[in-house]
Amino acid sequence: MKEEKIYIIGAGISGLIAALELERAGFRPVILEASDRIGGRMKTDKVDGFLLDHGFQVLNTAYPEAKKYLDFQALHLKTFDPGAVIFDQNDTYIISDPMRNPLKVVSMAFSKVGTFMDKVKMFSLTQELKNKSNQEIFAGENIPTHQYLKNYGFSDRIIENFFSPFFRGIFLEKHLNTSARMFEFVFKMFAQGHAAVPEKGMGEIPAMIREQLSETQIYFNHPVKEVQGNAIHLDNGETLIADRVIIAVQPDRVMKQLQGQFGSPRKVWNLYFTLQRSFLARPMIGLLPGDHLVNNIVFMDDVSEAYANGDRSLLSVTVLEADMDQKTLISQVQQELSKISGVKADYFKFLKLYEISYALPHVDDMKYEIAPTACKITDQVFLAGDYLLNGSINAAMTSGRTAAQAIIHSYMPTH
Predict the structure, then answer these.
(1) For a designed S-S bond to 265, which of 18, 27, 195, 358 qualifies (C-beta 3.0 to 4.6 A apart)?
(2) Is residue 377 part of a domain?
């Protein structure tokens, strides 16, 4: 084993992958984690026998990096049925498989959601994107998704009823201003793979990466105050001298000179309720088009029974904007749930609210990958994190691997 002192700040997905790649190259990195557990933004709590992910998240089985680092079988992945349940005013209908096989969607429901030409365009877009490499997608035009959908010729009806509520829940912003590069990538991933969760929650993903580490030390409750050159100043007053540092958190938190360089991250409110039983009764996401407080809902035990305790169903609710106090938010969500389901509002028993102030990074120029040299900011300091590329599990893994490669390369003799 090599004896160089390599420190990684942050035990999220990027930091864990960086450690794994460094280990494979013969290094013994040390991870400094501010909290008391691994996973970063990917965590699962156990509350009253229910499994609560911090924010509604899914793993797409088509992600190239996930296939490299995760054993899908060992995670006992539980997949969602492709499509969505649409709650449109007084009507509820299902569109199955709109991205995987649009022309097979022959039910009348699609005509309520969109037009026949929308179906044809959905099919042609699917074929186009399957033939495009991920690198080509991210080299494409950087225009807002809503403009891209209009330019492609989709009707206002399908944009309003399907694309908007579906992709708002992924981009965590209401107006689909996110780059069309990200839309194309996500659309392609959904056309090729399945949305899934590990049987026992999203926290199983970082746990699986950690299990692959044998030479890495992780110090919990070790918040870093500042990185200056190769010196890491901890909150507890200690200073560590490193040969190399990977900052696997947004770097303005620990490098004063980078403050103000990053836009505001995307926020989300994730509320959990229990109910006697699911009114969706299928492993599908429910979408609320139009001007609702709630963007999407999922009964998590419809997807994986392990999420609930067997007596009641577990409902995850995503809210994108909530300018109100917690009590009002819970009450208004219960009222909306009652309206779409016909179930009395007070039957939705509130369990927990996560107000997630950093749910997704703000990224203007989305990329699929970067050269190892691009994540190096000094001879000793390297960066990792999905904010360098795009807000996704795939990007978090890519950036961790790239930062590790940059360090490994930095030790190679130059001729």
Answers:
(1) 358
(2) yes
